[in-house]
Amino acid sequence: MAWSRMKPPKKREWEDDITFRLAGRLQNDPMFSELPYDIVPQYWLLGLNGQRLGRLDLRFKHRQSQRDYFAFESKRLHVTYPGGSVSPEYGVYAGDEGMMAFMKGQYSKNLAAAGMLGYVMDGNTTKAWDGLVTCIDERRDALCLPLTSKLAKSTLAKAVSKGVEGTRLAGLPRRVLESASSSLSGSCSHFFV
Questions:
Q1: Structure letter (DSSP) for residue 144
Q2: Which of 7, 10, 114, 127 has the most CB atoms in a 10 Å sphere around its CB?
């Protein structure tokens, strides 16, 4: 929902700048004021002695319990570098600073769930999706993925549009659910994985 209300990223925009814009939209958009989460961008994970273990791009914290709820790590895909070279960056997305950081526990300690965001810089989401499917499949063993698992489109748009009994979604005003559903089902340059 927030993504569809933002300007698309510029061709060479930095990942952190895109993430801050997304977090600003999530934190300040009236459509999100009724959700029970605070969104914290660029959140440092610290060890017992204050050592920096890693940095989550987006951290969702429950307002009442103050417990960490969800986190996203973000990566740019189809990046154009100075000089004009283009790199798909699928390996970075699935590698040590992306999906593998969750698998190794660097980003996922004390989190029940987490995900990845891919900012598709050229807007070619079909090519990015296919590239990620291949890259993730090639790293299946390292990522501890069962043979039966696969990258799949999120069913969140359908769930949000109907509300989910027993969750906060069930009690949200219809305008919030309809807006979230239409935004999630439209074409946009990000993935939830």
A1: T
A2: 114
In residues, how long is the chain?
193
Q: What is the helix, strand, coil percentage profile of the chain, to 5?
A: 35, 20, 45
Strand ranges (E), the chain: 37-46, 52-62, 68-77, 79-80, 86-87, 114-120
- The whole model's pTM is what? 0.76
Tens of pLDDT along 159-180? 555 554 555 444 444 444 343 4
Vertex 48 angle, CA 46 and 52, to 5°:
25
Give per-residue pLDDT as tens, 37-84.
888 899 888 888 998 888 889 998 888 888 877 889 999 999 998 898
Please give the C-alpha separations between residue 71 and each of 43, 62, 144, 166, in angstroms, as whole numbers: 10, 12, 20, 22
Q: How far apart are CA 14 and CA 34, in angstroms?
A: 30
**Residue 181 CB: number of other CB atoms within 10 A?**
18
Residue 120: C-alpha distances to residues 14, 98, 179 (Å)? 12, 15, 22
Q: In this structure, which amino acid lies at residue 167?
A: T
Three-state SS sequence of 88-131: CCHHHHHCCCCHHHHHCCCCCCCCCCEEEEEEECCCCHHHHHHH
Q: How far apart are CA 118 and CA 190, in angstroms?
A: 5
